[in-house]
Amino acid sequence: MQITGKLYSQGSSACEDVIVNLGEYPAFSINTQDAGEPQKLTIDNATVSPKLGSVPREIAIDNIGLLVIDSEPSVDAWLDRRDTVKIHKYEKNNKLVFLSILAVPLMLYGLFKFLLPATAVAFAAWVPDGAVRIASNHTLIALEKTVLEPTTLSNDYQHEVTQYWHDLIDQLDTENEHFNILFYKSNTFGPNAFALPDGTIVFTQELVELFERDRGLLTAVLLHEIGHVEYNHSMRLIAETLITSLALSYFFGDVSGLFELFGGASTTIIQNQYTQELEWEADNYALAQMRNVGLEPQTFADVMVKLAEEYGEGGSTLEALLSTHPSLKARIENAQQAE
Amino acid sequence: MKRMDYTPQEAAHSLLQLQEALSNVDKDAYPERANEIQAEIDLLERQIAEASVPKIEKTAKVIFHGNGKEYFRIWIVNLLLTILTLGIYSAWATVRNNRYFYSNTEIDGHRFSYLAEPMQILTGRIIGVLLFAAYFLASSFSPIAGLVVMLVLFALVPVLVCLSASFKMRMTAYRNIRFNFNKNYGRAYVVFVGYALIGIVSLGLLYPWMLKKIDEFIHSHVTYGDRHLVPKLDTREYYAAGILAFLSALGIGFLGGVLMAASGELAMAEPEQLGLATIIGTFLIYALVFVVSASIYQARIRNHIYNNSELSGVATFKSNVSIGGLIMLRLTNLIMLIVSLGFLMPWIKVRTTQFFVDATEINIQEGAESVLADQTQTGNAIGEEVAGVFDVDIAIG
Q: How many domains, in total, are found in chain A?
């Protein structure tokens, strides 16, 4: 088989048109235009670039240079005789392309919905206690230096409430032994409470004041935070965030430019779905434990109503994408159904 | 300098001497003598002009052979394999995707080659993932440790930029000659730490100057075989582009805000719907600001760099990207992406490449045939991948 090609001799940008004779595989020869003896070669001493779309075939011949010939069926058949993995065959296969169009979104959904959270749960269980304690200590120190201020609630009140709660926790069947309940003042957080992975649970003074020191309401919040600790949510979230950013950057990292515009947003949206799921788990943990401590699930709904009065209840689809917590409306309904 | 074989100093009389002589000659008294000198000046000026402008052999358009339909098949199948292998195949997918664009780009009858091997990319990726995970976990478990790791990484930025640019260049070849990037770490630290700090301290006033220094650093260290890329950049152009981009962002932001407030008043909608409208409106304004100001800056600076750079003895470049055209391209890309939920990505990539290719011309000089290869080196992908994951990768061109 005789074809024309371009030969770039090694080490320089010079190029000449050549006639290539593809003979008995793996033998082939190259003939320059100005006649002379054809150069007898073998494809064993060359590296052939894999077939890709209709781009010309590049054949890097040892000690000679780069031979470029057009991609034609007969040429490709000769060059790819020994190829075992034929990605381009897959790319040409209509059925496979069509299947990919369906499979890619489905698999991405499955990956982010099931595999990733499951991996995160496994990771969370594997984190040593020492690391969890360090994480909690350092986070608390960082928060104290930035957004948390000492509370002005009286020591007597703090002591009384925490004692009451420790007695309650003793009645619960918890895996975590030590819950350390703290009060802080925080303009930034406002009425809020959060849990650190080692069982430290922080209430803001603003929350205590919003609830007018109502012990039932505050206990409902405490149970929700205990849920986060019991299910190891902090560690799970760390793993989920890490894997999500890596997955997005590797699946779609080639999409430069637009990725800059959407990359942050899509990470946030996926992230929010994970945190919302964690909130549901914590809510349901609290609802399941309410009766164990002598409270009605309705009290939990009351907490959400109070917060909704403070923050608005939300509930639109877009807000559901852009918020770390489920809408208070949905959480109230969920609590009322638990009755 | 080697093409300037006729310099004023070598002439019988220098241009300066002649001009001085002419001004001293009484033109009315000795018109002939004055004309003689004038003729000599004209000749000399013509020779100097010819000598300093190298003979341009030919002007070549850049041609892109790729098409969306063909690329879509490659893209989707490789994406599927990447997901199936939980990301490991992404190294092979990257090579195929990049090869598609390099090998389909032609100048003067010759195509570019992408030389990276998947294993190089995979190794770099694994290191990148480990570093990123280390940083992320450190900062998640202890904000203090995170800060330390971040400072260390920040200190490594100049090194990563050099490694990344170097990998990218060495994996690019044209006419079987590799590009390369001269890893000048010392200079990189001056530019990315020293100048960057000056840029920050100046509250942004020296930012355009800093960006120019960065572009200058990156481009002036690019080589093609034994030839150097020589950019002659002008700080004023960076200020013009920067100020224009900044003002357009301010203008759109302001107009958009006013428009949103006004339409909110007019509609008297339910608070809940208003909240939704505000979120959508804010996103639209954000996207518009991003597209318009980035397009203004990119179009002007790309044109400036191309029009003022020379690959010594090989080629000069011409770029005429229009700001309006680029804004339209980015806006339509955005709409295509959202409407198709990402499935039109291959067409977006192809039409974007086509757009830039169409706006580019290369003036090929006599020396293009005689470029010699640099001593051959194989690249390692580590730098690029590490930089990629940490999002400090700097695009060239």
A: 2
Find, in chain A, the residue whose alpha carbon is nearest to that of B375: A11
Residues A53 and A153 in one domain: no
Asked if residue A64 and residue A144 are part of one domain, the reply reads no
Final residue of a structural domain among A25, A52, A85: A85
Q: Who contacts A171 (Cβ-Cβ below 8 Å, separation ≥6)? A: A292, A293
Instruction: Indicate if the pLDDT at residue B395 is higher than 70.
Output: no
Same domain, A40 and A171: no
How does strand B110-114 pair with strand B105-107? antiparallel
Tell if the CB–CB gap between B176 and A66 is shorter than 8 Å: yes
| Residue A183: partners with Cβ closer than 8 Å, 6 or more residues away | A151, A153, A158, A202, A203, A204, A205, A208
pLDDT by residue (tens digit) across B208-236?
Answer: 999 999 999 999 999 998 899 999 999 99
Same domain, yes or no: A169 and A254: yes
pTM: 0.80
Ranking A30-44, A169-183, B7-21 by mean pLDDT, the lowest is B7-21
Could you give the CA distance from residue B143 to residue A139 in angstroms, rounded to a whole number?
A: 6
Query: Which residue in A250, A259, A319 has the most chain B C-beta atoms within 10 A of its own C-beta, making it the best mutation to test that interface?
Result: A250
Query: In the predicted model, what is the mean pLDDT of chain A?
Result: 86
CATH for A14: 2.30.29.30
Chain B residues within 8 A of A55 when measuring between CB atoms:
65, 99-100, 103-104, 111
Of the listed ranges A223-232, A241-250, B318-327, the least confidently predicted one is A241-250
Q: Best of A254, A256, A322 to disrupt the B interface by mutation (most B CBs within 10 Å)?
A: A254
Domain co-membership, A75 together with A169: no
Is A234 a domain residue?
yes
Which of A55, A112, A138 is the mutation pick for testing B, counting most B CBs within 10 A?
Answer: A55
Q: Domain span at residue A20?
A: 2-85
Q: How far apart are CA A312 and CA A315, in angstroms?
A: 9
Query: Which residue, chain included where needed, has tokens 């709660």?
Result: A165
A319 close to B (CB below 8 A): yes
Instruction: Give a yes or no: residue A235 inside a domain.
Output: yes
From chain A residues 91-120, the ones with a CB under 8 A of any chain B CB are 91-92, 96-97, 99-101, 103-105, 107-108, 111
User: Is B387 buried (19+), middle (13-18) or exposed (0-12) by CB count in 10 A?
Assistant: buried
d(C-alpha A25, C-alpha A38), whole Å = 17
